[in-house]
Amino acid sequence: MKAEIDFQQQILPGLCLITAPLLFCISTFFWVDGQYGVTAATLICLSTVFWIPALYGLFGLLKHNMPFYSAIGLLIAIYGCCMGGIGFGMLGYLSTIFKISHHNYLGVLQQYPISSGLLLFWAGPLFPLSLLVLAINLVRKKAVPVWLGLLVGLAAVAFPVSRILRILLLAHVADVLLLLPLMIIGIGFVKRRKVADL
């Protein structure tokens, strides 16, 4: 029973804290002219499966000190990450295979403002915004070392900027800023170490 609890609450989230941002990192190498394309889009969509346990683990670090925020923040982060990730991933995938230009699909999406907002334009920014708020709370409650929290916060700011500007080098920097702290926290989970002591 204890082994099952350890796996569900520590080992699986820990492994996913490594896998999810790593898939983000790898996907950027497959951008095509600043767009996701087929391979990058596939990796982004697949990463969302790993983001769910990863986010569960991250927000779980605050469940005793901030139970309400931990639950609501997790829900918002999952919505932003998964809906935004899959939405933009599938948009990149489908626009590539059907050869629809960026300009054309933006024009069509404007015809469906509420659906496009819910599935893409409102969901997408919630992921980095939720990470930024999470980073602040993790540092405030001393759930992680300050330097780890700062890296997560920097990644949360750099990530949307890199995706909006579509600058490849900036995207790689944002990916690494996200990967490093989450990988360290993930290794701590897997090794069952107290994250605050890393």
Could you outline the blueprint of secondary structure elements for this entry?
Layout lengths: L1 H27 L8 H24 L6 H31 L4 H8 L3 H9 L1 H18 L5 H20 L2 H23 L8
Notes on the protein architecture:
The chain is an all-alpha fold and 198 residues long. 81% of the residues lie in helices and 0% in strands. It has eight helices and no strands. It has helices spanning 2-28, 37-60, 67-97, 102-109, 113-121, 123-140, 146-165, 168-190. It is globular.
Order of helices and strands: HHHHHHHH
Look at the structure and give the mean pLDDT: 92
Low-confidence segments: none
Using DSSP, what is the number of strands? 0
Spatial gap, N to C terminus:
27 Å
Count of separate structural domains: 1
Q: Helix- and strand-based class?
A: mainly alpha
Question: For the report, how would you describe the main beta sheet?
Answer: none
**Fraction of helical residues:** over 70%
Shape: globular
Q: Give Rg in angstroms.
A: 17 Å
Q: What percentage of amino acids are in beta strands?
A: under 5%
User: How many alpha or pi helices?
Assistant: 8
